[in-house]
Description:
This protein has 14 helices and 26 strands. By secondary structure, it is an alpha/beta fold. The chain has an 8-stranded mixed β-sheet with strand order 1-14-9-2-3-4-15-26, with helices on both faces. Strands 19, 20, 21, 22, 23 and 24 form a 6-stranded mixed β-sheet that branches. A two-stranded antiparallel ribbon has the order 5-8. The longest helix has 22 residues.
Amino acid sequence: MPVPQRPQRPPQSRPAPPRRRPPQGTRPVRSRQQDERPRWGMRVATGLSVLVLGAGGIGHALVSGLEDGIGRVDPFKDMKNRPQGGHGTNLLLVGTDGRDTITKEEKKKYRLGGAPCHCTDTIMLVHLSADRRRASVVSLPRDSYAEMPAHTDRTTGERHESHPVKLNAAYAEGGPTLTVRTVENMTKVKIDHYLEVDFTSFMKTVDAVGGVEICTARPMKDAYTGLDLPAGTHELNGGQALQYVRSRHVDVAADLGRMERQQKFMAALIKQATSSGVLLNPVRFREVSTTVLGSVRADKGFGTEQMLALGKAMKGFGPASSEFASVPVGDPSFPVKGIGSTVRWDAEKSEKLFADLREDKPLAPPKPKPAAGAEKQAAGTLVDVAPKEIRVQVYNGTPKDGLGRSVDEALRATGFATTQSPLNGETRDRKRTLVEYDPRWDRSAKSLAAALPGSELKPVKDQGPQMRVTVGSDFTKVHPVKAESRQTAGDFSPVRGDEVVCP
């Protein structure tokens, strides 16, 4: 996707440095959550799009001042037998579930009660390619089955041998160091930098960039988080965005669906940050960056020079430069004695995924560019049910020979599971295209109707799962559609950021 070059910045006077925060030892890890713990992957986008991308365009003086706000940790202390480094840069981004700085009003408004478990709620592995033109974000489910390396418990001082746990427990037992060790053992990917973010800055950051645009094909409600979005396109402020990324009771995909929504949010935030002028406006950049850095903890090696080098190399970064994936799952409910249900990775597929990261390969191969003026059409309308799950029998209800076959082929090209054997309708004088469906498959019928704008929907009891389309003389073309959720359709394939933002 061509991106205009960033104009050269005119001389600016040096802004006053941001206020320094208390020493790390006196500041608790801050974040929020309730029984449905928040997912912290959304700050990844903030860190990438604002810190990394903006640094090169704003200048060394400003970034030098901002670095003072970063809390420092040493996640690589005394680590041995680490994986061999590959090409590019790997960052481990985690978010904890602390909530010490949440006000009573915020807890009530956004339903953020509950007791913290002092563990990581979101873990994401971000790979920045060696040419700095691509960021690959891989979500690691918090309940992933993991083999914890031998270590000393940071709370009790007790020595533990290697034992099975859920991945998010590594932070509770051994902090950043044990978290890094566990992820490296599981992925064989060497971690170059560690970023840990809190919850408080999230809403302020979203508001600072002007909100984010999110699209949903159907109403989304979650009684636990208070999320209540009708179908359509929405401009979310910080509080609404928080509800969106935390919700897991909106579909059957549960945690996997929530990870997918977090990825969509990250792509939308990158789009907003790179298209709204935040990265070119020193005042807005300072506001957003100060908000973010006031709650970031990072390793000592991630400082001013690294921010500048990455920022200068990634000036043209945008949604199409990012790609998102989740670790392929073999068993989403793998029982482990004493631990409960865990998420077990698909060994073969996950090894392929992490091998591609180590070798600096794209996870989502680039797709052919659409014809001029066809970008929006190529994106397709969001629908609730994936076209590949919808079976369709086409009938020609007009006197035009070959129309049934043309529609069958067009629907199949859009992804629908047509019979590839169109038939003639009972009558050949139908004016309006008709979609007949069993009421039990009404969601599928609505998705099909979206591909046939203006068509008539008619419920037929006991028809079964197969849809019947009788083409009328009003037919013009099949409109491209795509499923809103990949996880509910069993599709874990990587996608580019421009494929998951609003059309």
